[in-house]
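Two proteins were folded this term; both appear here.
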Amino acid sequence: MQAYNCIMVFDKEEKHLLFCKRLWDPYEGKFNLVGGKIDEGEDGFHAAYRELCEETGITDEDIELTHMMDFTYYNQGCYVEVYVGTLLSDVELVPEDHPLHWLPLTEDFFDLDKFAGEGNIGHMLEQVRDYGIGEKRK
């Protein structure tokens, strides 16, 4: 089963969430959270920090991630690990492929015309708001 990660990055004031705007499918033209593939045998936290740095330039010195939740898609043969973190200070973003955008938390993250993931982004944000950010690395 292929593993992926998805990373919710809040700005240091926790008023904005970081997104990439997809240049190609899946979800071409829509906003999506950053993330990518977890290599076979790779630790989930290591993969999350690696993908975050590759796609945004944000390093493990800029943010502390927590593991919040997972989604398993048996019909697609994959699962997604969801990580959350708040920037410790302002960071200059360095996009890998897709343009990066800070969007205010007042957005309707369930808007399927604007956001990728069939409503998952809205669901994940509601989980953070209602239950917190998950477990830190032990």
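Next, the second protein.
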Amino acid sequence: MSKVAIFMATGFEEIEALTVVDLLRRAGISISMVSITGEIQVTSSHKVQVTCDALLEEVDFQGLDMIVLPGGMPGTKHLEACEPLMRQVEAFYQAGKYISAICAAPSILGHRGMLKGRTACSFPEFESHLEGADVTGSEVEVSDFIITARGMGCAIPFGLAIVERFLGKETAEALGKKIVYQQS
């Protein structure tokens, strides 16, 4: 079974994070909500308290197949300032392992040169941070082992793109129909 971890910092965007968690769990993909704050409860950008499954220091990164970075402010800034997490993002990039980011979080990948020569998208105000990328206005962009998405309104297609990566297009489309998602 594929294993995914989504990393949450104070000020994360709850829709972007929890939609991914919901969709992956519905699809049968193991996903852990991981706090980078040192506390198991993390407060979102809209003051919603979420109880995570684990703390950053408890994660076995060798056993993970994907890292997911939700957006939100100041959550994205906190994720990027977390050196232990950024070391793992770099390791995943070097190994060609899956990395996904939505909204402002693709800027983290841009700042590290991970989007050079790739197609990518982000929240419009952060497009200038996608250094070296072919920036699009698409809801989601899949470029080899990196998936990016624009924002909260794209959380369902983002989650379904992750499901598709692990379980195939048919499974992702079936899940979309099951949740009454109208694909554009």
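The chain has one domain: 3-178. The chain has a mean pLDDT of 97. These notes refer to the second protein only.
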